[in-house]
Structure formats: C-alpha cells, structure tokens
Amino acid sequence: MSRSNNRRKRRPQRHKGVLHTQGGHRSNDFRCASCRLDVSLDAPGTAHRNHCPNCLVSLHVDRKIPGDRDADCRGRMEALGMSVRTDGEWMIIHRCVTCGELSANRIAGDDNPLALVRLALRPLADPKAAGRALLTL
Asked: To the nearest whole percent, how much of the chain has pLDDT over 90?
C-alpha cells in the first residue's frame, strides 16, 4: 500500500474540548500568560479568580472593583510579595509589568502552597526587595 493511500484511510481527528485560539477555551477556563496552564475560573475561597494557582501570575483586567474586568491595560501582573490583613487573610501583592499599578488579591484555596511560601519568604532572601516594594507603594 502506498503512503498516499495510507493517509486517506486515517480516522478523522476527534473533537477537542479546548481550542487553542483566542476566545476558544471553555467558558469557565483561561490560559495562564506565564506557565500556559488552563485554569478554571472557579476558585475556592474567592468570588473572582484573578491569578494562576500554579505560578501566581495575573493579568491587569480589573480596574477598581474585583471582578469588574474593566481595566484597559491588560498587562501581565507579577506576584511581588505577600501581605496579611488584620483578620489573618493572606493577600498576594501584584505589580503590573506594563503600567506599574499595584493590587492586592486574595489567595485561593487551590493556590500552589510552595509558590505561596516562596513568595512569603522572598523578603528574607533579599532584604532590599522589601524596601523596594514599600517604596513603590
């Protein structure tokens, strides 16, 4: 049997649940801008998923109210450090790489514990990093 006949007899490609085009993901998923992981919008402990639970990177999509998705920037937000509210809730401090805006975001119940601990210990590894972060506030 020749190669051209063999190609014609292949099975059709099966349907995929996730398309790799702009807006082609399932309605309850997004693709992380950093690690490219498909992330569900359902986040335990928060009303609005706004960062990747694997690498903690976010996008600058909210303007003033969490979940409003009204920001014009759409830049990548890197996890800069951690903060703790007076009620004990942990927050991730993100800084937009494009415009420099800072935002505080709740951690989610499915966030990578090792990434959270590394982020919390970052000021101890580089004492000047905490000072630089405070200066940007």
From this structure: 15
Residue 47 and residue 66: Cα distance in Å, rounded?
9
**Helix (H/G/I), strand (E/B), else coil: 127:** helix
Nearest alpha carbon to residue 78 among 39, 51, 41, 54: 51
**Integer Rg of the chain from CA:** 20
User: What is the rounded CA–CA span in Å between residue 128 and residue 103?
Assistant: 20
Span 10-63, pLDDT tens digits: 656 555 444 444 444 455 677 888 888 888 877 787 777 888 999 999 888 776
Residue pair 97/57 in contact by the 8 Å Cβ criterion? no
Looking at residue 21, its pLDDT comes to 44
User: Using CA atoms, how far apart are residues 136 and 75, in angstroms rounded to an integer?
Assistant: 18
Measured distance CA(137)–CA(135) in Å, rounded: 5
- As a whole number of angstroms, the distance between CA 117 and CA 100 comes to 24
Closest of 129, 31, 23 to residue 76, by C-alpha: 31
Q: Up-side HSE of residue 78: CA atoms within 13 Å toward CB?
A: 6
For position 25, what pLDDT does the model report?
45
